[in-house]
Each structure stands twice: as C-alpha cells, then as structure tokens.
Amino acid sequence: MIQDIFPSRLDNSFKNLSPVDEDLLIIFNSEGRICLGKSGTDILFPKCSEIKAAGFVYLFSLDEKRFFLSLHEDTFEKEGFLFYSIREVRDHFSGKEVYAVFTAYHLWKWYSDNVFCGKCGDILELDDKERALRCPKCGNIIYPRINPAVIVGVIKGDSILITRYRAGYSHNALVAGFTEIGETFEETVAREVMEETGVKVKNIRYYKSQPWGMAQDILVGYYCDAEPDSEIRMDESELKYAEWVKREDIVLQPNNLSLTNEMMRRFKEGCEV
Ligand SMILES: [Zn+2]
Description:
Layout: E1 10-11, E2 24-26, E3 34-39, E4 42-44, E5 56-62, E6 65-70, E7 81-84, H1 86-92, H2 97-113, E8 125-126, E9 133-134, E10 141-142, E11 147-156, E12 159-165, E13 175-178, H3 185-197, E14 201-211, E15 217-226, E16 239-246, H4 259-268
Parallel strand pairs: 2-6, 11-15
Antiparallel strand pairs: 1-5, 3-4, 3-7, 5-6, 8-9, 9-10, 11-12, 11-13, 12-16, 14-15
This protein binds zinc ion.
Zinc ion (ZN) binds at residues 117, 119-120, 122, 135, 137-138, 140.
C-alpha cells in the first residue's frame, strides 16, 4: 500500500521550521497539479533554493529529506519539470515519494481551502505550535480536515462484491463511502453496501486503515459477509458495475497503492479475511 515504505519513514509531526537551500519544495498550481521532475518512474522535487518567494510552511520529513509547501507561489520553470495531477502521479510514478505527494496534496488542499475565517472573514494566520490556522480577530482555530471513509470487501462464499464507479477511477474497486455525522464505521459499512448494491451484510470485521488524501480522506477497510438471500440492486447513479466475482476471476488494479487493491488481492490469494 502507499504508506508501506518501511524501513523509510514519513514523519509528519508538527515543527515550526524555516527552510534551508537543500530542503525540498512542494508547489501546487490552482488546478491542484504538483510540480515534479521525472527520472524513470522516480520523482524529483524542486529545491527551496530554486525559488525566490516568501510563505513556506514545513510539512513533513521523509527519512532525512524535509519538505516545505509554497503557500503563495504556483509557478515553477526548470527543464524536465512539469505539473502533474494526483491521478497521473498514481498512474505513472512509483516509490516512497508517491506517499509524500499524496500527503502533501491533502495538506495543500487544506491550506488553500482555508484562507479566510469562516466566522468573521478575516485572513487566517499560521499557528506556530501545532498544525492549525488561527483567526487573529475572533480567535477561531481551524484544524486539518480529514474525511473518514470505509472500504468494504463483501464476501459471499467463494466470491467478493466487485464494483466499478460510474465516474472517475475506472478499474475494479470495492464498495466505498464516506461516514456521516453521528454514525459508527460499522454502520457506514452496512449503509453504504445497502445503498450502492442493495446487499444486506453481517459479521462486519476491521481489516486495516490507509491515509489516502485524494479526497482529503482516511480509508478504513472492513470485510463482511452477505446475507445468503441477498440480491444485487445496483445504484446506477454511483456505479456502472456491481457483481459477485469468484476469487480466481478477480482482476486487480494496475498497482498495489490502494487498500482496496490489497483487500481484493488477499481474497484472491485465499488469505483468511
Ligand atoms: Zn475570525
């Protein structure tokens, strides 16, 4: 999965640091595309020394490399560097830096969506003690937003419920959906499976979680069993495909970044789920 980078480590603990020349720079443009260089399938980042701008904020470290976000600059010109969408990064790059890009995207999206105070409209300031934005006028504090969502492997005998979304990502997936306010994860699992496919489930059991970030989300993976008499009634506004697929017939995603793919692969390989 994207976060499985051991023995490397992404340290995202908050620190109020100033950049030095060798630190790496995250630059997103207004369309949410990130500036990267490419060396084979490896990712290269601009350096802080290569841009003359103010307004850098420390994001995290990947092993010994420190990453800063440029809050105001959204252009960068250097031979071999282009602006890539997060989906292009997912499809065309590999390595631990993909995890850094996804995490940086989530942080950039939060910073860029929170320029003004939602209570009084004043311009927010960076807090120097924690990852937060603070309104100098009314004292409102805004913490990073993380949207919880479940990924569900629904099992029926020797088959699993495979879906494909109507829009967006086109490869095989599992049932997925965001948690509503006032709901447990297990209730989200039962509700989303019912809404998207009409299937009633039982024996809901936790598998693993995954920071994802493409939708400012954290994914929580569960397996569960379909009630034996369940028939699929697909929600055609969300899905274009929902079928029971036998282990040996499961077609996996093109890479192993996602929790969804790991959950499909484990079932395909006959692991205990
Ligand atoms: Zn305010």
